[in-house]
Amino acid sequence: MSLEFQDKVVLITGAGSGIGRATAIKMASLGASLALCDINYDNLSLVSKAIGTVPKHLDDVDIASSQEVSKFIDAVMQKFGHIDHIFNCAGVNPTSYPLEETTDEYWDKLVNTNIKGVYNVTKACIPHLKSGASFVNVSSISGLRGSAQQAIYCATKYAVIGFSKCMALELGPKGIRTNIVAPGYIDTPTNAGIVKGGEAVDRMKNGTALGRLGSPEEVADVVAFLFGEASRYMNGSVVEIDGGIKMTSTTSG
């Protein structure tokens, strides 16, 4: 078994479920030590059991709070002394509303987690990073094309791409890379279509050339690649992980 990330510390937000959980398990299998946070500590505890004796630090963190993020990063540095790779995975999936039916609370919830959270974690980590470090940030296929009744969600995911490309330019001269994954219809517990079930799931499956949903593990494999040496000349790239998505109006994952 390859231990490409032995002696590396990988920080993952939203590590308690879905893509974050799958990536934590993947990186543990590759030898990494893990700094994991999620707003739901019970879920983190289950992930901790799944990855066994791998060196790790767990914390319940609301990434929308710069104070909570700073406290988390300080604790990670105290435990490990360094951070090598950051996976900004935590996010809120959309609920479909016509714009005139959305609320300020809904705007704040999505914007504060999906983009402010990425900003908070990135800003707090940068002073601790050395050449060879990298970020992978989660956008979405909805960060590349619009979806009716998902204007706020799409805005946050477009913003992740713009922010990440700026970081690629800003941090690249320091040898720190920033790349983006844009998942499509992924079978996660918080995917709006999965929650609806039935016909919504069928529409998602039929909306891809491969005729199925993606798994969190398939996204985790790409994240591991983007952290690794094989992707060393990738910086500011957006990698679509969508099974060959068709131009439909199906709710994205």
Tell me what the structure shows.
Residues 8-189 form the Ketoreductase domain. Pfam families: adh_short_C2. InterPro entries: KR_dom, NAD(P)-bd_dom_sf, Sc_DH/Rdtase_CS, SDR_fam. GO terms for molecular function: oxidoreductase activity, acting on the CH-OH group of donors, NAD or NADP as acceptor; quinone binding. This is Ketoreductase domain-containing protein. The chain is α/β, with parallel strands linked by helices and 253 residues long. It has a single domain (9-241), classed as NAD(P)-binding Rossmann-like Domain (Rossmann fold, 3-Layer(aba) Sandwich), CATH 3.40.50.720. It is built from eight helices and seven strands. The chain has helices spanning 18-29, 41-51, 66-80, 104-125, 151-171, 192-196, 199-206, 216-227, and strands spanning 9-13, 33-38, 56-60, 85-88, 134-138, 177-183, 238-241. Strands 3-2-1-4-5-6-7 form a seven-stranded parallel sheet, sandwiched between helices. α4 (104-125) runs parallel beside α5. The model is unreliable at 249-253 (pLDDT under 50).
Descriptive tags:
253 residues, alpha/beta, Rossmann fold, 7-stranded parallel beta sheet, 8 helices, 7 strands, 42% helix, globular, oxidoreductase activity, acting on the CH-OH group of donors, NAD or NADP as acceptor, oxidoreductase, NADP, KR_dom, Sc_DH/Rdtase_CS
